[in-house]
Amino acid sequence: MNLKKIAEITDGILEGDGEFEIIGVASLEKAQKGEISFVESSEKAFETDASCLIVPEDFTNLNQTIIRVKNPKLAFAKIAPKLHPIEFSVKENHPTAVIAESAYVRADYIGAFVSIGENSYIGEGTQIHVGVKIGNNVRIRKFTIIYPNCVIYDNVSIGDDCIIHSGTIIGADGFGYVRDGANGYVKFPQIGTVEIENNVEIGANSCIDRGALGETRIREGTKIDNLVQIAHNVQIGKRCVIAAQTGISGSTIIEDDCVIGGQVGMGDHATVKSGAIIGSQAGVLPGKIVRAGVWWGTPVQPLDEFKRQNAHLKGIARLKEEVKVLKKKLEQLIQ
Questions:
Q1: Which end of the chain offers a freer environment for a tag, N or C, measured as fewer CB atoms within 10 Å?
Q2: Which of 94, 129, 165, 232 is catalytic?
């Protein structure tokens, strides 16, 4: 791809030869001739053999072919998949794949030992990798990638341009039981669905449970890291980011544009309002409403309150020593 085209894609201003061909992307340190990299700050010192740099608008180094943009990292992320597309030489079903006669499959790639159930639909441009198990009445739309050893249970729906990484389970039963006294627990029906909208990415070994009677839904543009548990009836809004090892209990609502740090635990029926940021290892109590802003700690609280509380805790040792000194002085006065 030539630099003129890259500048168009990134909405940038090119300073250099627009016909020069770029063959790949790389880091500043490893980039070679024919590759493009990026610089986030105009104040950062660096050395590179890259043929072109994507740089901030106020970049001052005039000895390098550059493309000036508002957000270099974003621009770099946009061109990387165009220079390094995922391609497969095989454009037919592997002979070991088992596809139900009633399934309608238009995928570009079906790997070895894939299983696709009755009445399922797989859209064009989709890639289904080795060992994936897809149940009955599943809908997977266009240009979605399902990586090896995922399991998609019956009646799940996945939108366009999604990426589901290896080992993920979508549509398993939620953890719902009713106590029957000394008889133990009776399983509550888990007969709902999972609806995943367009442009969602789900990390490896994550689990998304089906709704009990309704649906579990993940809305457009949300990105989920590895090892995330999403329980039944959870509703996650658009453009959310959820980091690794987070656990979200049943019927929790996370609205649009939220950021959830790693190892956050959420009790059932919690609500996270649009624009909220929850820091790593925070604990959200059942039914808690987390409003817009930055939150931290267990139980979760606004960041400023968490900092004050943490400062008080760190001062306990000093306070303890001061009490000891005062106690000794008091004893001396009494004597």
A1: C
A2: 232
